[in-house]
Amino acid sequence: IIKSSISSFETLIKVNDEQRKMYDRRYGWINIKPFLFQAEFSDGLIIEVQVNPEFKTKEIAEDVALQYLPTVGRLPTYLRKDVDTIWLHKDVEDFGGGNNNLLIHHGRGLEYKKQEILEEIFLHEATHTSLDPYHLSASEWITAQEYDGQYISNYARDNPEREDLAETFPLCFALKYKASVLSEDVIQTIKETIPNRLRYCDVVFFDGSGY
């Protein structure tokens, strides 16, 4: 997924601001009155965007939100289907997924954009949100894990019950749709390390036609 990839994001609509409960990595759960927007996508999905009032004005909040929504819209529909809200804060803290949400800290987002990995970060976090609840603990996924006996990253290896699918799915996606940008060595490493998980992703998420 790159900047030139087609985005399903269509428009951001201002709505009346109301009290919301949000998660902020700096403070934990907070109850505040954020700037509220409704993001609409061409596939019919709608996300409520909640922007921390620390951004001072609704116009600034809108501008910052629009820096991320086209990228979110580049994700496949099945990765956005359970994303009901986006929490957007200042500061350099990690993004997050889960809670029917995507968590953004703008300072970290600027770093991701500079490194040109923003799309990959959203791919990882949206996997937490829309795929983990259905697949991370599925017996077929656990069996594939066991048969592979290895992990695609140290992060997945050290946190198998939380991060394995979110770390693995982006590589399956890359191999399926963007293999041309991967070196032969990387392709071979992926195929040798997680062959059973690749098969699971291909059958469950893709068209089942193989790699």
Which helices and strands, and how do they pair?
Layout: E1 9-14, E2 20-24, E3 28-32, E4 35-41, E5 46-51, H1 58-65, H2 69-72, H3 77-80, E6 85-89, E7 96-98, E8 101-105, H4 106-115, H5 118-130, H6 132-135, H7 139-148, H8 154-158, H9 160-177, H10 184-193, H11 195-204
Parallel strand pairs: 5-6, 6-8
Antiparallel strand pairs: 1-4, 2-3, 4-5, 7-8
Helix pairs in contact: 5-9, 7-11, 9-11
Which structural traits does this protein have?
about 210 residues, alpha/beta, about 45% helix, elongated
In total, the number of strands is 8
Contiguous low-pLDDT stretches (5 residues minimum) are none
The helix/strand order is EEEEEHHHEEEHHHHHHHH
- Average pLDDT, rounded to a whole number, is 96
Strand order of the largest sheet: 1-4-5-6-8-7
Proportion of strand residues: 15-25%
First-to-last CA distance: 18 Å
Based on secondary structure, the structural category is alpha/beta
Q: Total number of helical segments?
A: 11
Helix content: 40-55%
Largest sheet properties: 6 strands, mixed
Shape: elongated
Radius of gyration: 18 Å
Could you provide a short overview of the structure?
With 211 residues, the chain is α/β, with parallel strands linked by helices.
Task: Give a structural overview.
By secondary structure, the protein is of the alpha/beta class. 45% of the residues lie in helices and 20% in strands. It has eleven helices and eight strands. The protein has helices spanning 58-65, 69-72, 77-80, 106-115, 118-130, 132-135, 139-148, 154-158, 160-177, 184-193, 195-204; strands at 9-14, 20-24, 28-32, 35-41, 46-51, 85-89, 96-98, 101-105. The strands form two sheets. The chain has a six-stranded mixed β-sheet with strand order 1-4-5-6-8-7. A two-stranded antiparallel sheet has the order 2-3. α5 (118-130) packs across α9. The chain starts with 8 loop residues before the first strand and ends in a 7-residue tail after the last helix. The mean pLDDT is 96.
